[in-house]
Amino acid sequence: MTEIDRTGTPLIEMRNMAKAFGGIRAVDDVTVNLFPGEVVGVLGHNGAGKSVLMKMLSGALPRDSGDIYVNGQLAEIDNPRDARNYQIETIYQYLALADNLDAASNLFLGRELVTPMGLVDDAQMEAETRKIMGRLTPNFRRFNTPVAGLSGGQRQSVAISRAVYFNAKILIMDEPTAALGVEETRMVAELIDELKKQGIGIFLIDHDIHQVKALCDRASVMKNGKLVGTVEVDKVTEDDLLGMIILGKKPEHLAA
Amino acid sequence: MAETLDEPTRVQKRNFFAALELDTRLLGMIGAFIVLCLVFNVLTDGRFLTPRNIFNLTIQTVSVAIMATGMVFVIVTRNIDLSVGSLLATCSAIMAMTQTLIMPQWLGLGLEHPAIAPVAILVGLLSGMIIGAFHGWLIGYLTIPAFIVTLGGLFVWRNVAWHLTGGQTIGPLDQNFQLFGGINGTLGETWSWVFGALAVVASLYGLMSARRAKVRHDFPVKPMWAELTIGGIITAAILGFIWTLNSYQIPTRRLERMFEARGEVMPEGFTTGYGLPISVLVLIVVAIVMTVVAQRTRLGRYIFAFGGNPEAAQLSGIRTRALTVRVFMIVGALCAISAVVASARQTFHSNDIGTLDELRVIAAAVIGGTALAGGVGTIYGAILGALIMQSLQSGMAMVGVDAPYQNIVVGIVLVLAVYIDILYRKRTGS
Ligand SMILES: Nc1ncnc2c1ncn2[C@@H]1O[C@H](COP(=O)(O)OP(=O)(O)OP(=O)(O)O)[C@@H](O)[C@H]1O
Ligand SMILES: [Mg+2]
Question: Which residue minimizes the CA distance to atom 30 of ligand 1?
Fold first, then answer.
């Protein structure tokens, strides 16, 4: 894995992020960052606060406190539209697709291509969808059926294609391969590598330690809403990572 | 042996319909409608399918059908609107007062001033939109359930209408305004044919340009013969409809009066048909606009996306609360248009105008295939639903079924239609 240059300004920096639901501190004073071309794994047990942290970055949840910096500039992200304007794209854990619409309508939802008369240009959108989805799932044919009729993996490809098509600079992937087969998982891994090369920064939430080791440069581990620590995955073992997730302890050789 | 012979033809038949790529649900509804008409025609000894009755059927359907197109949007976004009948009454009252009191007396324009009808309609439209937007705001921004907001609206607006008119029947309405009522305003034979021809040209052009867009992007297209078949059916339907309406002859005495009004004498033996009622023209325009909104605009796309998955719509950056306001504003506008048609048809405003329309409108949308779970529905389905309901009711009336029994049948048909729809969706897996 190529070395990531972390001397410049990070693509994303989230400082002292916090969010509570009633009495539950879902995210409690968490600071993480992300550099261009880097994949940062966000790890933790179920309910650790990974999704909530990422939803604050994608504008889906308002935060209680904390600041988000994009390229070193304080960013105003209060809703999903703001995040999109910063070229932050999200692939949600629970697939955020409208089941009754077809792949193209979902891919372009909120950013439809229109004809000069201002009407949605379905033919053009379908053509673009065919192009972009051809890269991810070459066998995909069901462009004109509602996505409710697609498999979990095909639906996931729609979500991933959407992020790729709109030139994300920052990509948030919340368990992107959870619904995928072996072959599709491999393709997502390849895609992640390709996006890395283009200088895109990726936050990847994943429960598969093996995959984290293979795909990520660094890993930020959370437990009960708090950040346990951030480590470079090459410098720790899988057992070290598991220890962080389960016990909430940083490995001793890095703890100092 | 019989089976081996049957199978291929059956497959071929399926291919024939598959090649047409028609909405099978729509076909089913049209089939049911045709059967309904034929049965009533037999039961009434041929009185049901006369030009006169078809003419009456269409003008009776218009008001509910217009509102039903808006109800589709409401139900697709997982809401309901119980207030449309009352809102119609309030719009009707406001327009009646505008044209009989405010403009002629307060503004001193006198009765039958040419500005009265357009201004009254404009005022009605604005009122409908403001009230609708207010409902939408209560639902979208204050998150009060639509059922409650519009149930409240059902009580409030019915009685606001009563208050505005002091409980009086207001009429007669302005002559120009009455043109929107149906029989008092028709295009006549020539203009009906012109309209029919334009409609044919427009639909054929639409079919052709849709095909061309597909070819341009190398998408699969229907075989040419299928395209031509559909074009032929549409042409025949439009021209057949116009021909039927033109065949309903204006009674001689009424014609004589029309000539007299123009200071002319009617030539001996002169006859002419009514042609397309202006109210039906209004419905056609509403249907086209609403269909374009549903299928070809961002607003429509967002309405359906929200119905399919509200969270996904919001995460995609759609302003979902504003969307709710817009949907109810559209319904408000449509209620006002229906109020024009309904009050013009009666030639006066009455307290009970639009009573129970909310139920007819919801039933029309649902019979037309709008799913209460949200995300699914078509404009043409709702209009066809309204037509089926009206045919059922008129047909039974002609056969001599008493009103209470009519309502029993309509209620059963509503439930049955939804059940058949559920079975259909299960089978097609959609
Ligand atoms: N919308 C919400 N309302 C109330 N509580 C919430 C909400 N979203 C998350 N929480 C709570 O916040 C905590 C963190 O949830 P989060 O979804 O971030 O977990 P996670 O780390 O993504 O877990 P998983 O691995 O299971 O996806 C949990 O205790 C959860 O119950
Ligand atoms: Mg999660």
Answer: A47
